[in-house]
Design goal:
Oligomer: single chain
Number of helices: 12
Distance between the termini: 41 Å
Helix content: 55-70%
Number of strands: 11
Radius of gyration: 43 Å
Largest sheet: 5 strands, mixed
Order of helices and strands: HHHEEHEEHHHEHEEHEEHHHEE
Length: 438
């Protein structure tokens, strides 16, 4: 409960709309307090200087009309003729013109004596005067309280109205924020819809133009990479054929290795650009992930020493076998390359939890600095310890693995294993079907 409330409180504190509404509330409270204090001061001094002597003289006249000792008949006649409430208390006469009103007002500790003057008679009787309650129960002594509650209600209504208005005015900011997140994630398919023709609408239009420009530049870069990669394939193929015709020697073997690395680089580059562009079709079929791992260990590596812990109960999943083979080959190659010189061999294990299949590839090498973990799946990123071309590649392997995992609806998680480095592939378990999907 507390964990869910804390983010909301932080968002509320950072919210521009909340700050503006708070400023409005403070301004409204300041205006109300200033108005009430000013009016109270004006009424107070006006009452002291003008009204109080007149009311006191009028009350003395009313007390004289009632007489000493008090005459209930006269008092009753006054209450019938005038909008007054009279209460007589004393050794002989105890009478009230409206007992219910007296009970109601006795439970209130009002300090408004200006509306309830009292006169003490010579025979010990006490006469209290007040203005009679109206049909709306808003006698003058009740009006300040009524005004206070009415003011508070109006202030709350104005605050609610200000909040709704502020939310309406700042709603384009939510659209701009969502659009910025989409653009940051590389999704330019849905532009920001300008809601109004004001400054925020102009800002949304300018951001859309900026996104269009960025999208065009990224597409141009992608097309350039694809074109160069395609153009390089033919000369590389011819160079490899020519190298095959050369007599066996160390130079020939080194040349073939370099040509193979260039071929793999171009293949990875083309595949990563296809997946990043979102145009790649996954040709799925039922795939046994354990069988795929065993096939890779038998055919793609020269006598690798790798420990396996494969769960035999894993179901067949609807996967693209070619791309999944590429993903596993890159992870295993990465683990073998960074595990050189370590006695403990790399480990690959598979397991199933709930509706998720997990494949973990771990080496026991030096690991990666924590600050670099978040960047390892970026294209062409290489850690400082892997700058050498012979050990670190060009930074496309993990990037391509992350794209393949995402295309299958899964995720690639990278972390240090202490010792070593661990890559975990998680895939949702879906019914395998021998059909192609895109």
């Amino acid at each position: 409960m507390k964990a869910s409330v804390a983010p909301r409180v932080r968002r509320w504190r950072r919210s521009l709309g909340a700050r503006l509404v708070g400023l409005f509330v403070l301004l409204a409270l300041g205006m109300v307090v200033t108005f009430l204090v000013g009016m109270q001061s004006a009424l107070h001094f006006g009452w002291q200087d003008y009204a109080r002597p007149l009311v006191a003289d009028y009350v003395d006249s009313l007390a004289a009309q009632i007489g000493t000792p008090p005459d209930v008949a006269r008092a009753k006649a006054l209450t019938e003729r005038l909008p007054l409430r009279i209460r007589i208390e004393g050794p002989v006469v105890n009478w009230s013109s409206n007992p219910r009103d007296d009970e109601r007002h006795e439970h209130r500790h009002d300090s408004l004596d200006m509306w309830r003057p009292v006169r003490m008679l010579a025979d010990g009787h006490r006469i209290s005067f007040g203005l009679a309650s109206m049909a709306r129960y808003d006698a003058p002594e009740d009006r300040p309280r009524l005004i206070g509650w009415t003011t508070l209600a109006m202030l709350l209504l104005l605050t609610a109205g200000a909040y709704r208005t502020m939310r309406h005015l700042l709603r384009p900011l939510d659209d701009i924020r969502a659009g910025a997140l989409r653009y940051g994630a590389g999704d330019f398919s849905q532009p920001i819809v300008p809601r109004r023709n004001d400054e925020l609408g102009e800002l949304a239009t300018r951001i859309n133009r900026m996104a269009d420009g960025l999208h065009g530049m990224l597409d141009a870069k992608r097309q350039l990479l694809l074109a160069i990669s395609h153009e390089l394939r033919s000369p590389l193929t011819r160079a490899r054929l020519n190298a095959e015709l050369v007599d066996d020697s160390e130079a020939r073997d080194a040349l073939l290795r370099d040509l193979s690395e260039m071929r793999d680089l171009i293949t990875d580059l083309l595949e990563s650009e296809r997946l990043a562009a979102g145009h790649a079709a996954l040709h799925t079929e039922p795939v046994d992930i354990n069988a795929l791992v065993r096939e890779l260990l038998d055919t793609s590596f020269n006598d690798p020493i790798v420990d396996t812990a494969l769960d035999a109960t894993l179901p067949a999943l609807a996967l693209d076998p070619t791309r999944m083979r590429l993903l596993l080959r890159n992870l295993l190659d990465n683990a073998l390359r960074h595990n050189s010189g370590v006695a403990t061999p790399p480990l690959i294990r598979s397991s199933m939890q709930a509706n998720t299949l997990s494949v973990v590839v771990r080496d026991h090498g030096p690991g990666v600095a924590e600050a670099e973990l978040a960047h390892l799946t970026e294209a062409f990123y290489r850690a400082d310890s892997a700058r050498l071309r012979s050990t670190g590649g060009v930074g496309l392997g993990l990037h391509l693995c992350a794209l393949i995992a995402r295309a299958h609806g899964g995720e690639l998680r990278l972390r240090n294993a202490q010792p070593g480095f661990e890559a975990e592939l998680t895939l949702p378990i879906r019914p395998a079907a021998p059909t192609a999907s895109s």
